[in-house]
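Researcher: Here's the sequence for the chain we discussed earlier.
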Amino acid sequence: EREVMGKAAGIRTHMLVCLGAAIFVMALEQDGAEADAMSRVIQGIAAGVGFLGAGTILKGQNISDVKGLTTAAGLWASAAIGVAVGLGREATAVLSTVVVLVVLHLMPLMVDPNVKVKPDDENDPRP
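Model: Thanks. This is the structure I predict for it:
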């Protein structure tokens, strides 16, 4: 629905991607899955979220007019954080979350201090 309005994926989408990835990994881990099965699930999550992210990328008429790359990368990072949570790597998940938030919210200000990240900006994951 957000694509029709020209907006990036919201915080709920990022949360659901993270939660879904964590559940897939935790379910296998609780079942006592072997490392090769866990590896296949993690590969499937990365590929599946890659397709989900590809759906958020919109190309304009101009070849350089591409929107949604930051959103796609944010969704992919959310899935990776979910995998870390599912594997019980809390420190990795927290540190990764902090890095993602810095990249999404502080980097635009560091690159151009006059830029304001607003809800309609693709760099802002808020709904």
